[in-house]
């Protein structure tokens, strides 16, 4: 019994320590957001890496998510002779939930793991220590550009996801399921509100922040050579993915709760 309690408390202690480290790194990043130099070239490079290079996988995920969702909802709505609700249902689901969450998960797997691996490699090869020796803050040089880039690019990728997802659902609904094209568009425009769009973008920005901060934190504290770098990348993906899914519930309850 004592051993079990010790393990529970030890795990809680490790969780609290890691959470505190992530929060501290985030606060330190906020401080550097208002202190020059801002290194716009590095930020643009990270925007290209996190955003542009993730575009193709987000495009594929978005279009097939929209197609599958239209196919499934059409079968359900046909039972109630309400096929005209396919377009609005897909648009609302994409804007509120599917686009920000699935975009966050895709970026986590592609860019979040790479951030942790890159910074972890720099850590174990003492390149981060070299930055300290040159009076350069690693947080300002390495973390700040990645956090800013993720907060900007993940919402833009979510917009891409929404766009291609809707037209994927339109293709399935109109050309494969023979739904009325005019009704599909008009019902969607009528049902979709501005709040549905911007709340999804707020979620995506938060998820981008989570991906970057967690990836940087795990990379900063990687140890143990190549094995430690691999563990840092794996833990980064797991923590970011779980955080995205858990925080999505609370953000939804906060934004849409009655």
In a few lines, what is going on in this structure?
The chain contains 9 helices and no strands. The protein has 258 residues and is mostly helical. The relative contact order is 0.16.
Which properties best describe this structure?
86% helix; 9 helices; mainly alpha; 258 residues; elongated
How would you characterize this protein structure?
There is one protein chain. The protein has 258 residues and is mainly alpha-helical. It has one domain (2-256). Helices cover 86% and strands 0% of the residues. It has 9 helices and no strands. The protein has helices at residues 2-32, 40-50, 55-78, 86-124, 127-133, 138-176, 181-191, 194-220, 225-256. Helix 2 runs parallel beside helix 6 and helix 8 runs antiparallel to helix 9 (225-256). The longest helix is centred in the middle third of the chain and has 39 residues, at 86-124. It starts with a helix and ends with a helix.
């Amino acid at each position: 019994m004592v051993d079990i309690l010790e393990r529970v408390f030890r795990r809680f202690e490790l969780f609290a320590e890691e959470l505190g480290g992530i929060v501290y790194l985030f606060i330190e990043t906020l401080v550097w957001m208002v202190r020059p130099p801002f290194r716009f070239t590095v930020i643009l490079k990270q925007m290209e890496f996190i955003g542009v290079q993730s575009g193709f996988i987000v495009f594929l995920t978005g279009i097939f998510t929209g197609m599958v969702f239209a196919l499934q909802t059409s079968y359900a709505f046909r039972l109630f002779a309400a096929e005209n609700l396919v377009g609005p249902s897909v648009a609302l689901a994409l804007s509120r939930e599917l686009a920000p969450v699935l975009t966050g998960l895709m970026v986590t797997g592609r860019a979040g793991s790479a951030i942790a691996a890159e910074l972890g490699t720099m850590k174990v090869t003492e390149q981060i220590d070299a930055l300290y020796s040159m009076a350069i803050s690693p947080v300002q040089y390495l973390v700040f550009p990645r956090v800013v880039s993720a907060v900007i690019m993940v919402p833009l990728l979510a917009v891409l996801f929404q766009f291609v997802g809707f037209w994927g659902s339109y293709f399935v609904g109109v050309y494969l399921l023979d739904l009325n094209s005019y009704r599909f568009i008009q019902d969607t425009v009528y049902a979709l509100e501005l709040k549905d769009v911007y709340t999804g973008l707020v979620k995506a920005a938060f998820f981008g922040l989570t991906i970057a901060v967690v990836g940087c934190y795990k990379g900063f504290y990687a140890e143990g050579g190549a094995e430690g770098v691999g563990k840092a990348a794996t833990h980064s993906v797991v923590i970011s993915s779980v955080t995205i899914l858990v925080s999505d519930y609370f953000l939804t309850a906060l934004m849409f709760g009655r």
